[in-house]
Amino acid sequence: MKKRTLYKNITSIIATCLVLLAFSGCKKFLEINPDNRIRPQSVEDYQAILTGALPQAFHLFTELYTDNYRYYDYPDFNNANIQSWLKPIYLWSDEYISNSGITPEGGWRKYYNSIYAANVVLEGLPNATGDEVYKSSLRGEALLVRAYCHFMLVNIFAKHYNEATAATDLGIPYALETEKEANSPYKRDAVKKVYDLVEKDALEGLGLLKDELYSKPKFHFSTTSANAFLSRFYLFKGDFEKSLLYSEKVFAKTTALRDLFKDYDTYMATGLYSEFAMRYCTAEQSNVLLMNHTLEWNSFARTGMYANEYRSTFSSADLRGKLFTFTSNQTPNYIVRKFRSQTPSDGQQYSNVALFVVEEVMYNAAEAAIRKTTPDAAYAINKLNAILIKRLRPYTALKATDFATNNDLLAKIIDEKNRELCYEGYRWFDVKRFNIPLTHWTENGVISLPANDPRRVFQIPVPELTANPLMEPNPR
């Protein structure tokens, strides 16, 4: 885990000043002050560091790997960025442009940047001045940031958790402290060790959170969003009873779902298309549990690669097919409506993206209910219908007799989850978990990603492999 590849460009707001965290060891930085730089001293200073490092949707490049996309050879529409930045990822190639924030290498670097900042906070808090309750809650949030980022990394750059092989499958390095010696090499920890440490950090962090301390809780880990994280974590681990347990903890606080009827009648029926996109992810949306902004290119809002074929699979009653994408004479293939750029004071363009929503937790609960030792099909169907009643016009409720087997119901859950969360970066993890084969179209024909293909695991970024002699690449 070389410092120059994992801990790069970390900036944090301390009080009202930007502070560059460009030091080889946190302890050394805090002990001396050679150039009168501003140093974190209070709990508020450390809150500013963590706030600046809260993870964004660094996983969105995974959507390019899925069956939600298709490349269309439209010379008049496709630009150089599509050809050079995005198309290699769409082709499941490891040879994409490096030093870009929207690639697997960018995701690797940014997640580890957030981990580094979380460790700075965890190491500095014991000596910080300020309220002890506030310090304890901030420690909890830093632990959850560290856990979440490692969880996303291991699910992108390592095999899916398999109880039989997780103890030996190569995972990713779990950083429990800041780097004390510059350019120290790190080995990959096993998938099981990563999961064990994620679980430890997340559970400890959840126990320390004090929601009442945050004026804008949807931009911080709260007890509700932390429970949503654990709902996903245990689902991916295959512990379906615990996934249900933490899903129900979310539902005890909120079951608020997005009302797409209201969205359609307010925005689509009146032609206010951009307004819908601008409001798709905001703190006022009751279904959003945790959100952040991400660089506009990360959302791929105008790539020209949203699959017309996938959109055509939505039924005429399903408002999601009409709301989430659009086309026109100027854009011969569909463009996503879920993201719109915001331009803050730094001049960059950002999109607001939700990291956890109530709908995902409902799909997690439905899947866990049907996959646990004693399946509960009625519970799973109830969760699906709770969402579909706000999606289908006219609405027809799902019934147990619609599914010959529990596997058929499971397939419906995974399909509905994609229709709800399409283009938000989650489809790939289900494709990987269920080993779903894929095909992608190019101007030269169709290429395939069959089940068990090693390319289903993203390659460790080349800069990391080059800089770190102990970093093992994934098989190819």
Question: What's a concise summary of this model?
Answer:
The chain has 476 residues and is mainly α.
Outline the structure in words.
The protein is mainly α and 476 residues long. The chain has two domains: 1-213 and 443-476, Serine Threonine Protein Phosphatase 5, Tetratricopeptide repeat (Alpha Horseshoe), CATH 1.25.40; 254-436, Serine Threonine Protein Phosphatase 5, Tetratricopeptide repeat, CATH 1.25.40. Helix content is 43%, strand content 8%. The protein has a two-stranded antiparallel ribbon with strand order 1-2. The longest helix has 26 residues, at 132-157. Mean pLDDT is 86; it is low at 1-37.
